[in-house]
């Protein structure tokens, strides 16, 4: 049996040490890394506690320039922490859905969104993180608002000899409430903003003197949408003088119509008897006088039959047709005369000629 000498023991111990040294080095390295990690964790925890205690790392702010939007509107959301000395990781959420993550130092995180339907309204929240220390912002929500339509302006005027009492009424029939109304004279504001939480007109009263100038008024309607204000059509009050009377025409018109009706009635009563008399005279006149044979021609005239009238010698009896009888008992007739022509021996040139004209003159046309 071989005995172990001192040299053998020494060689064995050297070999054992050579085998254990690599494992020990790895263990030492691993332990050192764990120690460093634990130190970093402890340091981070201490830093987070210190920042929270000293308010060095406050909660971030989440905001937008506008909280009221219309459908399809583009908006921007910004998340910002007041700590500008550290690198901060920002995360944006809508409900439980993660939307965006950005690293910023000294500047905010900005995200552009399009609000199309109700789920895009929110709620939104932002998370700011430094190492293992993080904080959340308050929730933010958008609100849908319907824009106002152009309002309608109505004006009522009460006129006196010296002043005009004017009532302005303005209403927008569409748009989310509340709505603020403002009245203008031309481009000058004449009223404060009048807010209406119900769908009713805003009213504003003012008094003007009768300066003789027409004045133009309009009103503005707007709700919480800042860039959607609408204006009414301008309304002008006609110019008036100091002695004007806007009610005079309304009072005078019925009087004029009454006077006109009285005049028409008087004319009708005055002309009706004459019309009846003329119609009666026309009805008494024979319509057909017959065809009378005439040798040369027929001459007619109208005369009055008087007592004691003598006939003209040489003329045939006159034929007459009665026409009408007046109030004195005299009647008007149409007389027909048939002249008779005879052949006469020619006379000297110096002697006067006797013809039909002379016969007519002698008869004096007693017709």
UniProtKB/TrEMBL annotation:
PROSITE patterns: IG_LIKE. Coiled coil: none annotated. Pfam families: Ig_C17orf99 (PF17736). Keywords: Glycoprotein, Membrane, Signal, Transmembrane, Transmembrane helix. Residues 58-141 form the Ig-like domain. InterPro entries: Ig-like_dom (IPR007110), Ig-like_dom_sf (IPR036179), Ig-like_fold (IPR013783), IL-40-like_Ig (IPR040878). It comes from the Eukaryota. The chain crosses the membrane at residues 251-272. Gene3D superfamilies: Immunoglobulins. This is Allergin-1. The lineage of its organism: Eukaryota, Metazoa, Chordata, Craniata, Vertebrata. The gene is Allergin-1.
């Amino acid at each position: 049996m071989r005995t172990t000498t001192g040299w053998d023991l020494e060689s064995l111990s050297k070999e054992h040490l050579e085998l254990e040294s690599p494992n020990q080095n790895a263990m030492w390295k691993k332990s050192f890394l764990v120690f460093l990690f634990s130190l970093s964790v402890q340091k981070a925890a201490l830093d987070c506690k210190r920042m929270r205690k000293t308010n060095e790392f406050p909660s971030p702010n989440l905001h937008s320039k506008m909280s009221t939007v219309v459908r399809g509107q583009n908006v921007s959301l910004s998340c910002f922490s007041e700590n500008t000395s550290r690198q901060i990781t920002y995360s944006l959420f809508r409900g439980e859905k993660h939307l965006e993550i950005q690293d910023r130092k000294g500047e905010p995180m900005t995200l552009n969104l399009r609000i199309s339907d109700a789920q895009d309204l929110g709620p939104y929240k932002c998370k700011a993180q430094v190492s293992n220390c993080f904080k959340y912002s308050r929730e933010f929500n958008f609100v849908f608002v319907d824009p106002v339509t152009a309002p309608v302006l109505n004006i009522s005027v009460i006129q006196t000899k010296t002043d005009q009492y004017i009532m302005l009424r303005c209403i927008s029939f569409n748009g989310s409430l509340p709505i603020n109304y403002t009245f203008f004279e031309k481009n000058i504001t004449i009223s404060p903003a009048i807010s209406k939480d119900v769908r009713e007109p805003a009213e504003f009263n003012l008094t003007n003197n009768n300066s003789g100038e027409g004045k133009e008024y309009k009103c503005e309607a707007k709700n919480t949408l800042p860039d959607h204000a609408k204006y009414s059509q301008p309304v002008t009050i006609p110019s008036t003088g100091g002695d004007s009377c806007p009610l005079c025409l309304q009072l005078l018109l019925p009087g004029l119509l009454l006077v006109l009706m009285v005049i028409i009635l008087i004319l009708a009563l005055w002309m009706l008897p004459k019309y009846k008399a003329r119609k009666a005279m026309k009805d008494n006149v024979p319509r057909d006088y017959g065809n009378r044979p005439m040798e040369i021609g027929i001459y007619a005239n109208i005369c009055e039959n008087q007592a004691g009238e003598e006939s003209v010698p040489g003329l045939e009896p006159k034929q007459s047709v009665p026409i009408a009888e007046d109030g004195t008992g005299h009647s008007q007739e149409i007389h027909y005369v048939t002249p008779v022509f005879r052949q006469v021996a020619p006379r000297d040139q110096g002697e006067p000629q006797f013809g039909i004209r002379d016969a007519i003159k002698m008869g004096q046309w007693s017709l």
